[in-house]
UniProtKB/TrEMBL annotation:
Signal peptide: none annotated. Keywords: Phosphoprotein. This is Chemotaxis protein CheY. The modification 4-aspartylphosphate is found at D53. The keyword Lipid biosynthesis does not apply. It comes from Rhodoferax lithotrophicus.
């Protein structure tokens, strides 16, 4: 059975690019258009990794990550932040909230898939 990755980004085209890269590498993908939408899709199923944008309307990626890390089913789910945000302060905020990696857009799909393969839950 393929590993399930959640992709959270307010850009439909960005979700599509990430999904195509992940599906091409053999992963299943569920998508959320912002943090709040993504939370409604975390229903206790095993999610092997979450890839989230930082700057989104309704609920941003850092606020989303803080909520996810409080949920027993997802406390140990690795999270990669995929964002245009490259400020050290934001990176530290993301790490403090529980992000395992920080990938800055624009990115190479292979680079993202390699990070996923390294960090994904077994």
């Amino acid at each position: 059975m393929a590993k399930l990755i959640m992709v959270v980004d307010d850009s439909a085209s960005m979700r599509r690019v990430v999904s195509i890269a992940l599906k091409g590498a053999g992963y299943d993908v569920i998508e959320g258009c912002d943090g709040k939408d993504a939370l409604t899709k975390l229903t206790g199923q095993k999610v092997h990794m979450i890839i989230s944008d930082v700057n989104m309307p309704v609920m941003d990626g850092i606020a989303f990550l803080k909520v996810v890390k409080q949920m027993p089913a997802y406390k140990f789910t690795p999270v990669i932040m995929l964002t245009t945000e490259s400020a050290e302060e934001k990176k530290r905020e993301g790490q403090a909230a529980g992000a395992r990696a920080w990938v800055v857009k624009p990115f190479q799909p292979e680079q993202l898939v390699n990070a996923v393969q390294r960090l994904c839950l077994p």
